[in-house]
Amino acid sequence: MLKKLIVILSIHLLGIDICIASTDEFQLVIIDDPYIEMSTGPGSGYPVFHVMERGESVEIILQRTDWYKVKNDKGLEGWVPLKQLSKTLSPSGEAVTFTTQLHDDFSQRNWEWGVLGGEFGGAPVFTAYGSYFFNKNFATEASFSQSIGNSSSSLIYKIGILIQPFPEWNYSPFFHLGTGLISVKPASNLIQPVDQDNQFSNITIGLRTHLTQRIILRIEYNNYVIFSATKDNDDNEDISEWKAGFALFF
Amino acid sequence: MESRLRTLLLACFSSVLFAFNTPVSASEENIDQVIDPIIKPEIKRLNFDESKIDSDNIELISSIGILSIEDFSVNPLISFQLTYRITEGFFVGAEYGLSKAGDSSVEKLLPGTTLLSDNEKDLNYYLLNIGYDIFPGETFVTRNTTFNSAFYIIGGLGNTQFAGADNFTYNMGFGYRIIASDYITAYIDMRDQAFSIDLFGDDKLTHNLAIKFGIGFYF
Q1: Parallel, antiparallel, or unpaired: how do β-strands B146-162 and B122-140 relate?
Q2: If contacts are CB pairs under 8 Å, which of residues 51-70 in chain A contact chain B?
């Protein structure tokens, strides 16, 4: 446990180094709105404390969600929402447009990372997954799930190919064909608990939609065929699962 | 006399002319230096590149605190949480925590009894949460020191590994965050982590309260 903590702590410290090292030159823009308001924090609940006029130049220091931390030429720092920066000019006089995450970006994403929750054969299940899109229609996906039942819990490792026939639709359906390993661990209060590892194959149908910014909502139904047949037991196990969750795309 | 005066005037005039003329002729000699400007204007086009704006929406929070494990006294807790800010109000996070249960009342009353083995007393959990800043505001530490802060509510689902079994867990709570700088945040957080546990042959829903102090870093 101590080793585990040391590893986690060192990763954390590394993280601090990265954020200190990331200070570099800032982007300069010129305000073209009649005025913009500076807030004390990145949220509409924080008060406005300064107003800047058209023609003033500001440096953009940091972005957090839809808010930008800016610094004016007098060195005053504050937060401005994206919608107030919609009319700004670059130092060379061209209009600047800030990209908001649009549906186009959603259909052209490369990476998707998400978490899902649902029910696996009657027991609660959690999934973390990552997908890489080769093009608009095809992706490879790997996932890790844990299902927590009353008498046993299972770990499910899955890898497969995802097909998305209509990436431009608002509610885009997808299919997934996968295979993997399911490891069933019975609860220790059962008599003679024996761990069981089995391979499975899986088919998924699902729907995903772009909610806002980088967020995707995803709903899916899975069918697993677990190759648990042995000499004594001829039948493979058939388990159905439904899940819903959120993902971020990049 | 007149010619002498004229000569003198001419001499004066020519010396003045010479005096004015000298720098011109000198500069003509160094004509190369004149073409080479003394102040070189740096013609560096300042173009706007949005991708160069530092965007920090991910935060790693390390916390220490106490976890009251129902029937197993109050125990130290260490947790790590990775959060992503979706909007100015909402954030999602994944949390991993470690603790170890102490002796239960039964074990204290009847010395020698062991309800759970040492390994089974190890507790670890993961939780997937969603939170919302309900009261953003400012905290006035002294007359001249002010920090942005927020009071948030948080809740979610997960798994707790305890007593040799995986236990489906839900948690909800609230917390207070002081934003010390653009990158560093201080947290105090209170949660009720509830899960069913089967210790005596019957499922029992236990409520486990966690109080944590944490430091978060944006990157």
Answers
A1: antiparallel
A2: 60-69
* Cross-chain Cβ contact A117/B45 below 8 Å: no
Q: How buried is B135 (Cβ within 10 angstroms: 0-12 exposed, 13-18 middle, 19+ buried)?
A: exposed
Residues B52-82 as b/e (b if ≥16 CB within 10 A, e otherwise) read ebbebbebbbbbebebbbbbbeebebbbbbe
Encoded tokens for A58: 């500001």
Stated pTM of the model: 0.73
Q: CB-based contact (8 Å) between B168 and chain A? A: yes
Residues from chain B contacting residue A28 (CB–CB below 8 Å):
46, 48
Strands A57-64 and B54-55: parallel
Q: How far is B160 from chain A (nearest CA, A)?
A: 10
Task: Give the pairing of strands A111-120 and A237-249.
Answer: antiparallel
The verdict on B180 touching A (C-beta cutoff 8 Å) is no
Chain-centroid distance of CA A180 in Å reads 23
Distance from CA of B218 to the nearest CA of A (A): 7
Single out the residue of A93, A159, A151 nearest to residue A130, CA to CA: A159
A12/B contact by beta carbon, under 8 A: yes
Residues B164, A12: C-beta atoms closer than 8 Å? no
Q: What is the pLDDT along chain A (250 residues), one digit of tens a residue?
A: 545 555 555 555 454 444 444 445 778 888 888 888 999 999 888 889 999 988 888 888 888 888 899 998 888 999 998 888 877 777 777 777 776 656 666 667 789 999 999 999 888 999 999 999 998 889 999 999 999 887 788 999 999 999 999 888 889 999 999 999 999 888 766 566 677 888 999 999 999 998 877 788 999 999 999 888 776 777 888 889 999 998 988 7
Q: How far is A161 from chain B (nearest CA, A)?
A: 26
Pick from A177, A246, A173, A239: nearest CA to A206: A173
Asked if the interface predicted TM-score (ipTM) of this complex is over 0.85, the answer is no
Task: List the alpha helices (DSSP H) in chain B.
Answer: 2-29, 31-35, 105-109
Give the number of other Cβ atoms within 10 Å of residue B210's Cβ: 23
Q: DSSP letters along B83-139, please?
A: EEE-SSSEEEEEEEEEEE----HHHHHSTT--SS-TTTTEEEEEEEEEEEEEEEEEE
